[in-house]
Amino acid sequence: MTAQHPRPYGVEILGSGTALPERRLTNADLETMMETSDEWIVQRTGIRERRVADWASNEKTSTLALGALQAALKDAGMDASELDLILVATMTPDMPTPSVSCIIAAELGCTGIAAFDLNAACSGFVFSISTASAMIQSGMYRTIGLVGADCLTKHIEYSTAGRSSAILFGDAAAAVVLRRNDNDTSTGMIAHALHSDGNGSKILLIPADRNDHPDPESCDDRELNRVYMNGQGVFKFAVKKFPEVIEEALELAGLHADEVDHYICHQANARILEAARKRFGLDESKLRINIDRFGNTVGASCPLVFDELRKEGAIKPGQRVMFIAFGAGLTWGASLWQL
Ligand code: COA
Fold first, then answer.
1. Verdict on whether the full-model pTM lies above 0.90
2. Is the minimum distance from the CB of 158 to ligand 1 under 6 angstroms?
């Protein structure tokens, strides 16, 4: 369930990149679509605007994922031909099959290499970067392109009926390129804690069938294929598990909270992040909140923060960063890295 790691090889994060849809959906725009207000949204969530993919213009999970990975490869100064695995964290693939990773591998000319998607909802990137690191640390792969990409807005009802989730989510993709470090085995993931509890699956889901819905009798066909969320239930779960999993990863690594330089957190709600920041006595510079500009971008959320900090020069070699997320499933996890 949780573990510290034997590390025959180190892992470096060589590059990062982001791809965002063009269209901004502001709180003022939402006010024209449903009964809500900028004040209500900002107070409850900290969100001011989010991006929405335009599928008609070919903006979708795979095209954003491709853009993000290309940007990360460019940042790393690497060619796609150097990748030996492409891994995409997503719960909103363009279609059930083929996977987003196979689609973008073909676009990059990477035929023949391993490519697969991993679905752990909003925890997808944390589960994936832990998986990718373990695969490199064990010697299975040398260079991995890892993308967090989601377009959840296609499952949102933009009306008063769907307003509690309509205000939250945005679309995005962000990527990192990971490579085996033969010289320094201390680099890479130093502890991880990944968890799930399917008993909580009904508080946040996208029902495919009436029987999936927590209340099948009342379920209207218009609710199928749309996000169903018990907001308060998710809030309670997150407020509890978020600090718990941070503590668990710190304990596994034998570190204090102030010995981690950046907490790269899933951006679900600014209030949850502020509470964690206060609980661990962290300076604002150690826990970036960018939810005001992007909303909750599901699997893209953590790498979006990472890329932003990296581009600002705030992330430096030798630092420690912890990726933390929680989401549907229910899932929650943390992956602690030595850069
Ligand atoms: N604008 C205005 N009013 C809204 C609204 C909106 N966008 N969404 C809901 N409301 C209303 C509700 O209908 C309800 O009205 P009522 O009292 O007349 O029934 C009232 O506001 C309170 O609703 P509630 O759901 O209790 O609000 P809340 O304070 O819990 O805030 C969330 C709602 C969604 C912001 C909050 O629960 C939350 O952030 N939860 C976590 C969600 C999350 O992180 N999901 C992703 C996990 S990865």
1. yes
2. no
